[in-house]
Amino acid sequence: MPVAAVVFVVYCVIVVGLMKVSGVGYEHFFDTADTTLRTAVLPLAAGAVWLVAFLAWARWDHVFRDARRLPTSWFLWTLPAVMVLISVLHLLGLEWSLFAPAHVLAVLLASLLVGFTEETLFRGVVLRSMRQGERSEGMAILWTTLWFGGFHLTNLLLNEPGAVIQIFFAALTGTGLYLARRGTGTILAAMALHALWDFSSFLVGVHPADNGAAMGANFLVPVVYVLAAVTLVVLVVRERTRPAREAITPALVPDVGARP
């Protein structure tokens, strides 16, 4: 875990530092194509370079794919499914005519980079570290989720007073992102869900429409957070006896050569 902490701190210094020096307030990050490129795309691209460089050096196994897929019931699939539904409704509830193509492409690129970097960091490096040792999968889930939520406190450095509340919302959505990885056995699913969720959220914060899709999304957002809280409790309790290393130990093969 100390190594994961170092990776996390360096990532924060790079990404949050570059966002800070952009001179754009957090609430205006995605107002235009130019602000999106300066405040999100460039910092996140730099963060991606750091993460890729670390993984190339460390050669950790099972960061992007589990050695064995953990069981995922239909109930555990509900949260990711509802997150997809809300994202689609958000996209349908936009005033698309007010967006320039360059603006949409810039937000899409930023969203893809968020999906790649934050999932590589949290559902990749951090989760892989938490699965090392004698922790249960329940504790690995809980600590990864809390760490992801706490990360959003860095938004205070970007003059975002709502960062304290974001901690809780981010942690809850992180539960759905964990389940996307768990259910498929690969982090690519979590990256895709994260990118879709943020893409729709970033755009709806700029030019929302007043239509049925937008109303449906607004109705479901509180529902998804309640569902996420219930799901997190169920996961932590249900997985309290499952060794976390089970996900990183290939069947019938000793766990050798892992380097967290």
Automatic annotation (TrEMBL):
The keyword Transmembrane helix applies. Residues 104-199 form the CAAX prenyl protease 2/Lysostaphin resistance protein A-like domain. InterPro entries: CAAX_protease (IPR052710), Rce1/LyrA-like_dom (IPR003675). The chain crosses the membrane at residues 39-60, 72-92, 98-117, 138-157, 163-180, 187-207, 219-237. Keywords: Hydrolase, Membrane, Protease, Transmembrane, Transmembrane helix. One of its GO terms (molecular function) is peptidase activity. GO terms for biological process: proteolysis. It holds the Pfam family Rce1-like. It comes from the Bacteria. This is CAAX amino terminal protease self-immunity. It comes from Oerskovia enterophila.
